[in-house]
Amino acid sequence: MGVHADNWGMMLPRMVVISLLLSTGAGTQELIPGIEFVNERLRIPESTWFDEGNYIESGVGLSFGIDKRLTYFAGDYEEAAQRFEISVRQFRYKAEIWVCLARAYFYTKAFDVARDALERAEVLMPDLAGTLWQPLLASLQWEIQRRAVQQQAQIDFYSTGLEEVLTLFRLYLFLEDHSAASDLLAVSHERARMMRERAKMVSGASRSAQAAEADRWDQLGDRLAGELRTAGIDVPPVSSSAPPPEPAVTESVDEQERIRILQLRVDFYRAQQEDYLQLFQAYLDRADITRARSVLASLGRHMGDLDVLSSVAPTLSDQADIEEKIEEFKMLRNDLRNQIPGDDGSL
Description:
Number of helices: 14
Low-confidence stretches: 1-28, 245-249
Helix content: 55-70%
Number of strands: 0
Structural class: mainly alpha
Order of helices and strands: HHHHHHHHHHHHHH
């Protein structure tokens, strides 16, 4: 969607953002006021290992300044990262180069590599550990948690694309929130299912475009699952949202219509607990585990919606009523999740 970094904090009420950040615990290091990872004007101290004379004679300073101007600040962060890697190999004790290197990786969404750059710098210049490297690591952790909160809100309440889901997946992997990362598998396949439902309502080129987009969402879900398994993280099998084969016993027209109406309520209207329960059971009866899991994902979005409403409730009584509903939906989702065969609770 191209949301600028400075606008991330405007997407949800401030009190919601703060409460979510506090609930997740923003980093293990101390957040020091003024030490902000994304602050381009942050003054970078020099290490006691830094020798300005040798630095000037090496010519690294000149190339470093050109690299920042021509690539880093121009937004070509991939090229910037390559150039900064050359600079830190040529002169390892210039702290500012390491900070720029970490930021370049951050903006290319290589979050783990950004953290690795700061940790490499700390090993080389331990005298700056308490004043620079550790505070920057804490700020990096906090910044990624903040962006994960905002990106999740975008996905829950707005129309977002595949890139936004993939970015959020990377954020959750960095935060080691494997459960939240796994939830995005169901989100991807649910988006594919909705695309296929819309395709049935149109014809010609529009239908082909909707079907192709559905395939891309399914492919994204499969890709995320593959990455989790490659990383050694167990995830329940989530199959494609492509139309399932006809059941052995053909459903009655009335039953098909009942399921269709329930799905419409869940997708586009304010569904009640009973609607979620009936739709979930209908998919279990069909042995359609993928769509049964999609009901859990829909429940999660509904709870997120209620959480926002709670934060802006006009009275404490209204807030308490909404929070009670959230707890009821949480209990329902847990009960339904336990009914999915072979589910380990990660979705």
